[in-house]
From TrEMBL:
Keywords: Magnesium, Metal-binding, Transferase. This is Isoprenyl transferase. Coiled coil: none annotated. GO terms for molecular function: transferase activity. PANTHER family: DEHYDRODOLICHYL DIPHOSPHATE SYNTHASE 2 (PTHR10291:SF0), DEHYDRODOLICHYL DIPHOSPHATE SYNTHASE FAMILY MEMBER (PTHR10291). The keyword Signal does not apply. Mg(2+) binds at residues 32, 222. Homodimer. It comes from Lactiplantibacillus plajomi. Its EC number is 2.5.1.-. Catalyzes the condensation of isopentenyl diphosphate (IPP) with allylic pyrophosphates generating different type of terpenoids. PROSITE patterns: UPP_SYNTHASE. Binds 2 magnesium ions per subunit.
Amino acid sequence: MFGFLNKEDPADNDNVTLDPQRIPAHVAIIMDGNGRWAKARHLPRVAGHKEGMNTVKKIAIAASDLGVKVLTLYAFSTENWKRPNDEVNYLMQLPVSFFDTFVPDLVKNNVRVAVMGYVDKLPAATQKAVRDAIEDTKDCDGMVLNFALNYGSRAEIVSGVQAIAEKVATGELAPQAITSATLDQALMTAPLAPYNDPDVLIRTSGEERISNFLLWQIAYSELVFTDVKWPDFTAATLKACLADYQSRDRRFGGLTDKK
Ligand code: IPE
Ligand code: IPE
Ligand code: MG
């Protein structure tokens, strides 16, 4: 890969310039590496999650400033319940402190909060924090800050298919009438239309896998992997990742439109 993105050292990326005409509309991030960040500092894993929350605040504003329309952040997966109770409890309380301290800044930056995932399975206090943040930012018409909370793409697809099958069973929908758009509308990204699909998916921490995130929606997303652990991710790292995205030639199966 050509070297806009220094995978190991984001500090080298400070001088990156982006083409303002080609800022990706929908940026999705798998925020990974909080635990390893903490471990490297001989801190408990939750210290990494706390620092990761501060990174979310910085990156939300940075993305909004760059003109991103939708920033989707993978905060808790349907598989993360497998973790020790103490860690799960900490992660469930994080949205409460996040929104408690950050909603005024979001409003100031005209950022609207959205959430996708099985929110009804979250603890009551987490659900309330999420509901309040959505309500408090509902009039903002700038960037959408979309949290994937208790989200898993296979579960999402299963739920979507069940909803479609229900319509077929009642005769409301003919099987032959099912199109790719029917699926788009049945998935949890439907409210983000016309930006359902991420233009770029970034994963931090050096892991190069998808971990059940947006499987349908990333069909033609550009994938950017950085070794930087999420608590160390900065606005400069984001810009480097977007510069890497801008260096790609998106063909969607066709031929290049680069002269
Ligand atoms: C990402 O960091 C945050 C969540 C998955 C909630 P991790 O907690 O997965 O950190 P690592 O991968 O163990 O370092
Ligand atoms: C993916 O990270 C989920 C989130 C970032 C919320 P994980 O740390 O859970 O993924 P795996 O277990 O390494 O695949
Ligand atoms: Mg991880």
